[in-house]
Amino acid sequence: MSLPSQTSSRKRSSGWRPSQQNEAYLFLLPSLIGFALFVLVPIVGAFVLSFFKWNLISPAQFIGLDNYQQLLFQDAVFRKVLANTFVYAVSIVPLQLISGLIMAVALNQGIRGLELYRLIYFMPVITNIVAVAIVFQWLLNRDFGVANAWVWQLAEATGWPIAPPDWLNSSFWAKPAVIILTLWKNIGFTMVIYLAALQGVPESLYDASKVDGASGLQRFRFVTIPMVSATTFFLVVIQMIGAFQLFAEPFVMTRGGPAQASLTIVMYIYQNAFEFGRMGKATALAWILFAIIFVFTLIQTRLQRRWVHYETGD
Amino acid sequence: MKRWLFVATLVFSFVFSLSLAQTTVTWAMWGSPEEIATHQAVADAFMASHPDINIEIWSQPWGDYFTKIQTLWASGDSSVIPDVMFLSPVVNYAADGVLENLDPYIEASNYPIDDYWPGLLEFGMYDGHVYGFPRDIGLEVLYYNKDIFDEAGVDYPDETWTWDDLTAAAEKLTDVSSSGRVNRYALGMEGGKYQLWIGQNKGSILDDMRNPSRCTLADPEAMDAIKFFADMMNNNYAMRDANLGQAGGDAAVFQSGQVAMIIQNASRISAFNAAGMNYDVAVVPIPEGGQRSASAAGAAWTMSSFSDDKEAAWTFLSWLQSTDGGQAIYTSSGEILPALQSTAKSDAFMGASDTPSNRMAFITEGENAKVGRAGFFPEWNELSGSIISPALQAIWSGEATPEDALPALCESVDAFLAQNGYPK
C-alpha cells in the first residue's frame, strides 16, 4: 500500500523516473570509480596493513594489534610527536584565527590600495613551502641570520650580555620557529575567508549599535565576532585538521630536530614508512591520527551550538 | 631466379638480425642531471665494446629513488625491475632476497676482489656473501682554506697532527665578537659523522655492527671521542650540527669562508676548484695513541635476483667495477674516490687536477679504512634515525652532556636490540 505512494511522491519531488535514476548513477560512475580506486581502496588497504608487519619488500606478516599496542604503550617517540603536534595545534590555530581576523577587519576599512595589500598577504599562501622554508632557515641562522642581526648589533653597541635565540639548534626555539613559518604561510588564507565573511555582515547592524552608543571595540566584540562565527567554526575545523597534519614546514626547516623537538605525527608516519621500513606501524599511526582528528572535530561540532550564530541578518 | 634471390635475401636478413639480437640490461641509479650524464657516458662506453648488450638507464632523484624501486619490487614483475641497481645500504635489501648473491660469479670469472680498499667490500656483504660492489669509498679528509690559515698565522695541517694540534689551531682560527656572535668557525663537520672520532679513539657504536648485543657509546673510548666533538662545538670551534645544516651544509660554509676547515669526502673537489678556492686536503688528525679510521662505505652496484639475463648483468657489473671500465670514467669525472685501489692510484685519480695537491691524503686514509659508521642489519636505520641520532643531537646542540646523555642512550639502544631479537 505504502510502496506506490512513496514512489509517486519521489517521482513528484524529483521528477525522475526509476529508470532515469540508473542513468544518473551511470553519470556519477566515473567519479565514484575514481573515489573507490584512489581513496576508498587505499583507506581500507591501510587499515588492513595496520595489522601487519611489512617493509614493502618481503611478504607481509600478520601480527594482530601489535602495531597499535606498541605505539600506544611502548613507543616513547610516539608520545613525543603527539605532544609536539598538540603544541603546534593549540598555538597555530588560535594565533592564525586572531591575526587573520584582525588583518581582515583592517583591510575591510576601505583603505587605499586594498587590492595590493590583499595580494601581498595572500602571496605566501601560494608560494612553494620548500623555497619558503629554506629562506626561513637563512633568516633564523644563529650568527649570520637577519632575524638575529639586530640583537647582535645591539649587544655589540651596548656591551650588554644578551644573546638572540639559537632558533633551529634549540629544542625550545625550534617549535616557535616552525609556528612562525606556518603562520606566515597561512594567515593570508584565513584573512581572505574572513574578508568574504565580513562582506556578509549587514551595515544596518553596525548602524543600530552605533545609535545605541557602542564603541568601535564593542561593535567588533558584539557584532563582528558573532556575525562571522560560522566562518570561525569552519576555519577552526579545517585549521585544526591542517595543524594535526603538519609536515612540510618542519620537514624542510628542521628535519624534526633537534632531538625530535619539532617532529610531528605525520613526519613520524613518513619516517616509519619510508625510512625505517615499518609500513604496518606507519598505517597504524595514520589510523590513530584519524581517530584523534575525528574526535576533535566531533567535539567541535558539538560545542559549536553554544557559540556559532547562523543568522544571515536579512 | 628472382624469386630465389628474394627468399635468400629474406633468410639471410633473418639470420643476420638474430645474430644482432641484443639483451637489454636495465640500469638504475639516482643522481642530478650532471651525474646522470656521467652514467650515460659510462653506458655508452660499455655498449661500444659490448654491442650485444643494450644498457637502458632508469634514474630517479634521490628523494624518490628508494620508494619507487621498492614499489617495483613489490610488483614482482621482472620486466620492470631494474637488473643492475645502485643501492645503499646493501644489507637491507640483501636480507629481503631481492638481490643476487655474487659469490658464484666472482669465483667463476676470477674477479679481483682484493683490489678493493680494506673493509669496503664488507659494505656490500650480507651473511658472509657479496651482494654488491661499492662504486666508491666515501671517506673523509680534512679540507682547509689556505687563505684563512695564512691570515691566522697557523701552520697547514699534516699527517703528524693530533686532536690537540687540531684544537690549538681551531682556537686561533675561530673568530668570535665580543657579543658572542661567531664570525668564523674553525671547523664545519656534520654531526652524523661522529663515528669518525670514535673509530679513531678505538671505540665503536655497538659491540658488533652486524649482530650487536650491546651499545658501546658509553664506554670510555666512545665517550671521550664524543666529548672531544661536543667540546669543539661548545667552545665555538666547530659550527653546531643544526646550524651547519641550516647554513646550507659544510661545503657551502667552507666556500663562503664561514669555516676554515671541513671534514668531507672527494665529491666536493670539482665544486671547490670551479669556485677557484685556495685550499688543500690533509689526513684527519687522530688522538694520541689512536688510529686512522676513515669509513669504508659507499653506495654499491647490485644485481636483481629477478633479472632475466643474469650473465649479461654480470658482464656489465664486472666491467663497471674494473679499472679499464666504469671505474676510470667515474674517477675522471672528478666526483669520487674509486672503490678499486688500482684505479685510485692511477692517473685517473692522482692526476685529475692540480688542486688539491695532497691527494695522497685520500690514499693514506683509504689504506687504513675501517667499517663501523653504520650497522649491517635491517633495523639499523630505525635504531639510528629514531634513537641514536636524536640523543646525539641533544649533545651537539649543547643541551645535554655526554656524561648524562650517553648512558641513558645506551639503555634505550639495548632495549631496542632486545626487542628486535638481537643478538641473533
Describe this structure in words.
- The complex is a heterodimer of chains A (314) and B (424).
- In chain A, helix 4 runs parallel beside helix 8, helix 4 (76-107) packs antiparallel against helix 11 (229-244) and helix 11 packs antiparallel against helix 14 (279-307).
- With 314 residues, chain A is mostly helical.
- Chain A folds into two domains: 1-49, no CATH class; 66-307, MetI-like fold (Orthogonal Bundle).
- Chain A starts with a helix and ends in a 7-residue tail after the last helix.
- Helix content of chain A is 72%, strand content 1%.
- Chain B folds into two domains: 26-72 and 80-138 and 297-357, Periplasmic binding protein-like II (D-Maltodextrin-Binding Protein, domain 2), CATH 3.40.190.10; 141-293 and 379-419, D-Maltodextrin-Binding Protein, domain 2.
- Chain B has 19 helices and twelve strands.
- In chain B, strands 2-1-3-12-6 form a five-stranded mixed beta sheet. A five-stranded mixed beta sheet of chain B has the order 8-9-10-7-11.
- In chain B, helix 18 packs antiparallel against helix 19.
- The chains are: A mainly alpha (314), B alpha/beta (424).
- Chain A binds chain B through residues 55-58, 76-77, 137-138, 140-144, 152, 155-156, 159, 161-163, 166, 168-171, 254-255, 257-260, 271-272, 274-278, and chain B through 66-67, 70-71, 73-74, 92-93, 96-98, 177-183, 240-243, 245-247, 258, 378-379, 381-382, 385-386, 390-391, 393-394, 396-399, 412.
